[in-house]
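Reading group handout, session on sequence-to-structure problems. Before we discuss, look at one worked example. The prompt was deliberately terse, the way you'd type it at a terminal:

> structure Shikimate dehydrogenase (NADP(+))

The input record follows.
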Amino acid sequence: MSQNNKTSVLAGLIGAGIQASRTPALHEREGAAQGLGYLYRLIDLDQLKLDTSHLEELLTAAQRMAYTGLNITFPCKQAIIPLLDDLSPEARGIGAVNTVVLKDGKRVGHNTDCLGFAEGFRRGMDGAARERVVQMGAGGAGAAVAHALLIEGVKQLTIFDVDASRAQDLADNLNQHFPGNRARAGRDLAAAMKEADGMVNTTPMGMAKLPGMPVPAELLRKDLWVAEIVYFPLETELLRTARALGARTLDGGTMAVFQAVKAFELFSGIVPDADRMTAHFNSMNG
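And the output record:
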């Protein structure tokens, strides 16, 4: 997409407990580098004392205030879908939205998480074994990551979630989109981890506001690669524990950057400089 005549962007992030987010600075700094007036606001449900039942009000308010678009994060990525006018093919297939473009009175949902994780996985886990992978979490981010993992060649993906029915629903959805019944809901975490080549955490566990690990430390081992989507902090307890064992690890930074790269393009109509945005992100996490 080539540069259009848009000279200003008003964007925001809707989610719970998002005060530490790097996303506003990432967008605003790239906007400045592109010569745009770019304002990115946090719409924090926790601070506003709201929950997902108020999403319709927030979307309506954003449209009235001429927002260009919104990013959507935990716990809103699936709850927002019924409130939208249309979905991109990716968002429809994944069943989760992390970016909403507000244009001509319409709300169109997109998913840039899948692309973001896939790009990070290609860059950080090149050559990693992909026969059997365990995924923790089957929420909105988990749905996008699971799609990315199957696109990237994982042969058998075993999904665990605190809500077993949600893990089953995600596996069923994946098997409708990818041939070969490559996804399944997990029953026995210890057994699945023992057989796995790698594991991915797509739960919020490990965030600054939700410390801890999604799996017991004793299930980690040196020959198991470990990937994370949490990026604040960049080194979660899970990654720190895995690295101490000598395991290959991938932090959530690349996914954070590359989902933002695509969201920036959707909001502004301008293809941003991905290397510059990566450098911006790294400077904030130095």
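Points for discussion. First: Residues 8-111+255-284 form a domain with the Rossmann fold fold (CATH 3.40.50.10860). Second: The chain has two domains: 8-111+255-284, 114-252.
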